[in-house]
Specification:
Largest sheet: 2 strands, antiparallel
Strand order of the largest sheet: 1-2
Mean pLDDT: 81
Radius of gyration: 34 Å
Helix content: 40-55%
Shape: elongated
Distance between the termini: 5 Å
Length: about 375
């Protein structure tokens, strides 16, 4: 058979999506030669034996064969093996960051750029609304968000009241007594920090069963002003810190994965950065997200060896196969490797094949060529 005919057969095999090809090393069939190649042991024509990786994806084509089981230790080893994969780590870093941010927002409220701006506006209002006569709010020109919070917490007398409110928030009676003692001392001095303040009685806190609720902050002079200032400044600082941390964490996690770093330009919102976690901006994002989901949903596992445990490993292996582009193994074979603590290396990119493959085969006259990774397993027959 002519060279061009063999190459055309190969091209047809690829177009039809057939398996893989035995290494051909740039050889061609001469006219009349039988060019069929031997099948590779363990290819898809094998009978089910119950051995992971034999035959089909599930590793077993015989209905009567024993189902494959996995121990809890094997599941844990498979998870650890995937988590050690260098590529997985990059995606996991980003996905961990997104999960942590969403959990924080669910528990403590949103803290994106607009939320911080609203919190800062509340602080500005609290500094001037019903301020005691002796309070001289700072004059700020184009301040940063942190400058506004610092101005609020730098108000005369703020630290005295803050110590009281914080002790109550922490439910610490001894700290509250100390804070109230400091407040009474300042009130007695009648200095700028506590102009007109009156000492308070907190003797009930000395009782054996006293709690912070035994004292009412309404007894504090100018409590309404300082409590409002404390609450808004504390809330604003919490949101600002969470926002800054999220922006930094997401930016650093996205950099190693983005196809184009220019996509980070002008992104100053958490939502804007999270939107970049998408296949449009990151290669194979959805595929690795699927691996991450399987890895993080593997618990609980059965204590004893079970088919359910193996199913968890197989699910991870199936997602891992897709994400890594592993065309040489079935999911069952990958699962077997993962349970042994092997198979962590992402397969070589087809653009840089190893010495068992041929990337381009071309006919002598250049009219027919096959390009791609030719791997062991596919049988191509060409006869005259």
């Amino acid at each position: 058979m002519k060279k061009s005919q063999v190459l055309a057969a190969l091209a047809l095999a690829f177009a039809l999506g057939l398996g893989v090809v035995a290494p051909v090393a740039n050889t061609y069939a001469e006219d009349g030669e039988d060019t069929s190649t031997e099948t590779t042991p363990g290819a898809d024509d094998s009978e089910g034996t119950g051995t992971p990786g034999a035959g089909t994806e599930g590793g077993d084509t015989n209905e009567d064969a024993e189902e494959i089981k996995a121990t809890r230790g094997e599941v844990e080893k498979a998870v650890a093996t995937v988590e050690s994969n260098a590529t997985y780590k990059k995606y996991a870093t980003l996905l961990d960051a997104i999960a942590a941010i969403e959990a924080n927002q669910t528990e403590n409220g949103n803290f994106d750029k607009a939320d911080v701006a609203n919190a800062i506006s509340a602080v500005k209002s609290a500094m001037t609304t019903s301020a005691p006569a002796y309070i001289k709010p700072a004059t700020l020109v184009n301040p940063s968000d942190q400058d506004v919070i610092n101005a609020a917490t730098g108000t005369n007398g703020y630290d005295l009241y803050k110590a009281i409110y914080k002790a109550i928030a922490d439910k610490n009676v001894e700290q509250l007594k100390s804070a109230l003692a400091a407040y009474n001392t300042a009130a007695g001095d009648n200095k700028d920090a506590t102009k007109g303040a009156v000492a308070v009685d907190y003797s009930e806190l000395n009782n054996a069963n006293a709690t912070v609720a035994s004292f009412s902050v309404s007894a504090l002079t100018n409590n309404a002003y300082f409590q409002g200032l404390y609450n808004t400044a504390t809330a604003a600082q919490t949101k600002l810190d969470a926002y800054n941390t999220a922006i930094s964490t997401l930016t650093n996690a996205l950099k190693p994965l983005l196809k184009d770093q220019k996509n980070l330009e002008g992104k100053d919102t958490i939502a804007g950065l999270e939107a970049l976690a998408d296949d449009a901006y990151i290669d194979s994002y959805s595929a690795w997200d699927a691996v991450y989901t399987k890895v993080n949903s593997v618990e609980p596992t059965d204590k004893d060896a079970s088919e359910a445990n193996y199913d968890k490993v197989l699910a991870i292996a199936t997602a891992f196969k897709t994400a890594t582009g592993n065309m040489t193994q079935t999911a069952a074979q990958i699962a077997a490797d993962l349970m042994k603590g092997t198979g962590t290396t992402t397969p070589t990119d087809p653009s840089t094949p190893d010495d068992t493959t041929t990337t381009t085969i071309e006919s002598a006259d250049g009219s027919v060529s096959v390009k791609g990774e030719l791997q062991a397993g596919l049988v191509v027959e060409a006869k005259e």
